[in-house]
Design brief:
Layout: E1 5-8, E2 12-17, E3 21-26, H1 34-47, E4 55-61, E5 64-70, E6 74-76, H2 77-83, H3 88-103, H4 114-128, E7 147-149, E8 158-161, E9 164-167, E10 174-176, H5 178-189, H6 207-221, H7 229-243, H8 250-257
Antiparallel strand pairs: 1-2, 2-3, 3-5, 4-5, 6-8, 7-10, 8-9
Length: 261
């Protein structure tokens, strides 16, 4: 019943499902039950009025559960930017406005807390990479839990559709501190000053485009969300430690974390 392959991610593949839906199929390495969690998070966020796809149900394909979502016709913001690299600044400002809108949304209480998510990731990184990473847990604030945080906010997870910008991939959704989610997005956009980290999830762009996108994103989101430079820097270190558990290039993240010793 799966149709044409539409997209491939680090945890799943997306296929057409009929003419107006898509099926998100977990990769063999993805833990059982993951797809159902993401569907439940997405549905909860949808009920809060956020711009996300409607969840249509869970099906079984070749013995594995797959999530069925409404199909959002359009291109990712990243693909649009790659076609118009000279417009990195306005794309960055639009990205910041969108994120600020999400962060102004009251989170569903059914989402995990940011504190629990990051604690789990940092402990996993400490166990598999370097035990001293556990010291970052002392820097993790026991934050308020009312703000909706995406947890993986970047242009590849935004679809530019006729109905506006739609945000997808909500597996890492949580309720927590907005500065923590902004710092995570900054880390994913990978500006030059963060150790020269190249984002494999955002392929094809020059460093100039990445920096221009990032700086305009930060400028835009800070118009709506207040935080100090010190708070932001602390969340950057926490986010870098957590990201080490995600199977990405370790060297630049470890080099960046040297600065917080």
């Amino acid at each position: 019943m799966l149709g044409q392959l539409i997209a491939v991610g680090s945890r799943s593949m997306v296929y057409a499902w009929g003419s107006d839906a898509v099926a998100k199929v977990p990769l063999p390495s993805t833990p059982h039950g993951w797809i159902r969690f993401e569907a439940s998070y997405t549905d909860a966020v949808f009920q809060c009025g956020a711009p996300v796809p409607r969840v249509l149900g869970i099906e079984t394909v070749e013995g594995r559960e797959v999530a069925i979502f409404e199909r959002i016709s359009g291109v990712s913001m990243w693909d649009a930017l790659m076609a118009r690299e000279s417009e990195a600044a306005p794309f960055g400002r639009e990205l910041g406005e969108l994120h600020a809108g999400l962060l102004a949304t009251i989170s569903p209480v059914t989402l995990p807390t940011q504190f629990a998510r990051l604690t789990s990731k940092i402990l996993a990184a400490a166990q598999s990479i370097d035990s001293t990473l556990s010291r970052l847990l002392d820097r993790l604030p026991d934050s308020p839990t009312g703000t909706l945080c995406h947890g993986d906010f970047h242009p590849k997870n935004i679809v530019m559709s006729k109905r506006g910008l739609v945000v997808v991939d909500w597996f890492d959704a949580c309720r927590g501190n907005p500065c923590g989610d902004i710092a995570r997005a900054s880390l994913l956009l990978s500006p030059r000053r963060r150790g020269g980290m190249r984002p494999n999830h955002l392929p094809g762009a020059s460093q100039r485009v990445l920096d221009e996108l990032h700086d305009n994103y930060i400028w835009s989101v800070r118009k709506h969300v207040s935080f100090s430079d010190e708070e932001f820097e602390n969340w950057m270190y926490i986010g870098a430690a957590a990201r080490l558990s995600e199977g990405v290039d370790q060297e630049p993240l470890v080099a960046f974390l040297e600065g917080c010793r």
